[in-house]
Amino acid sequence: MDLKDYLNVLVKRGWIIILVAVITASSAFVFSRLQTVVYRSTIQLNVWPGRPDWGLQQTIKGLMRNYSGQIKSRNMAQDVINRQQLDLSVDDILAEMTVSPIESDFLIQIDVDDIDGQRAQLIAQTAAEIFVENIRVYMLEQDKQDRVDVFIRDNATPPRVFWPKTRLLVLAGGLFGLLAGALVIFGLEWLAADIIQNSRDVERHAGLPVLGSIPVITTSKSKNK
């Protein structure tokens, strides 16, 4: 098939592609509406050395991974539960929390996902506050020049919908439908490739030019009343 043949196929069967894309996009939309809504709240902690020393800054980058592990620990989860009197287990808190060190910016990011948006924000804020308190108490025992300052950059963000991502799902469904529709129509053309339907098909299969064709004659019968 040359380019002209492909264009003819698209013109003739393009409606199939559109139909499949509409069906898959609609299915993705319905699927997203059936999902349980999960909210996310985020808070960031600044981690900064007590003096502008390059060596200490490099040490802090390694220390940040340890700090992240401390935040996402069973002890921290239990402290959050106790302080806010939450009706959740330690495993529930740990499953909802993601802690990521951002070494290039000397930040630790805490993300909390929960079906209750206000609770997600409360957990994120409380975990950050408890950790800052613990580090400040620990740093009192260290030499002033070796201390690491940890503080909350901004309070936990208002909860936002994290899942389902309806627009992304619908877009992905539509693109998948376009691809699936294209495969369908070209599959149909492949199955019909050996069927002679017009003079061009005769020329393509026989390798001979068509000199003429017998027209189809239709007759109509009229009835006398």
Write up this protein:
The chain is 56% helix and 16% strand. With 225 residues, the chain is an alpha+beta fold. It folds into two domains: 3-34 and 166-195; 38-163, Bacterial polysaccharide co-polymerase-like (2-Layer Sandwich), CATH 3.30.1890.10. Strands 1, 2, 3, 4 and 5 form a five-stranded antiparallel beta sheet that branches. Strand 2 (97-102) and strand 3 form a beta hairpin. Helix 3 (74-84) packs across helix 5.
Taking the sheet with the most strands, its summary is:
5 strands, antiparallel
Q: How many distinct folded domains?
A: 2
Kindly report the name of the CATH homologous superfamily of the largest domain.
Answer: FepE-like
Order of helices and strands: HEHHHEEHEEHH
What is the number of beta strands?
Answer: 5
Give the overall shape, derived from the CA principal axes.
elongated
Q: Radius of gyration from the CA trace?
A: 33 Å
By CATH, the topology of the largest domain is Bacterial polysaccharide co-polymerase-like
Structural class: alpha+beta
- What's the end-to-end separation, in Å? 54 Å
CATH level 1 class label of the largest domain: Alpha Beta
Q: Average pLDDT across residues?
A: 86
The level of helicity is 55-70%
So how many helices? 7
Low-confidence stretches: none
In terms of DSSP E residues, the strand content is 15-25%
CATH architecture type of the largest domain:
2-Layer Sandwich
